[in-house]
Amino acid sequence: MLDNLYQILSILLLAAVLWASLSIVYVSWKNGISPMPSSAPVRQAVAEEISRLSKKGVIVEAGSGWGTLALHVAKRCRGWRIVGIENSAVPLWVSRLIARLSRASVTFVRGDLYAYSYEEVELVLCYLYPGAMKRLSPIFQEQLKPGARIISVCFSLPGWQPDKIITCRDLYRTKIYVYDVKNSVIEK
């Protein structure tokens, strides 16, 4: 009887792992990129940059993946309301679980980062790929208010002039692009 229970539990666990793996592969294929956690030096540099801002409000992490960046920012940068947008079920579930267990003040929502309304957002965090940045550029141009900020890890916004480029002290010398919407020169 106990052996049968272990077999059933083993099969259920294997099925859950297989489903999770296939889900991640499918959504990664659909998105053109897999969810990638940011490194500790990158998270620290982003949090330091956010801490320099006097204005508080809503931070949206577009494509929050496993939630590492949003969760780190929530712990280091008090006073912000943080929303992570993710369309992959497994990383979204993991980030929600970690947020709940760590009591972090981050809301992770399932959604399309290209359809999200950025009109009431003070700061957008991005750790995406060049194709996504190209697609988001006109959305940000249209929706973000003057004075809003964009912090992008690894990839710049095409046609935008960053106010600052930070080079991290990690293995890859990762670049972080910081934009102030009112100061960025946008090429048409």
TrEMBL record:
Q: CDD domains attached here?
A: AdoMet_MTases
Matching entries from InterPro entries are given as: FAM173A/B (IPR026170), SAM-dependent_MTases_sf (IPR029063), Small_mtfrase_dom (IPR007848)
Q: Which example biological process does GO assign this protein?
A: methylation
Which stretches are transmembrane? 6-29
Q: Which UniProt keywords apply?
A: Membrane, Methyltransferase, S-adenosyl-L-methionine, Transferase, Transmembrane, Transmembrane helix
Q: What class of enzyme is it?
A: transferase
What protein is this chain from?
Class I SAM-dependent methyltransferase
Its Enzyme Commission number? Answer: 2.1.-.-
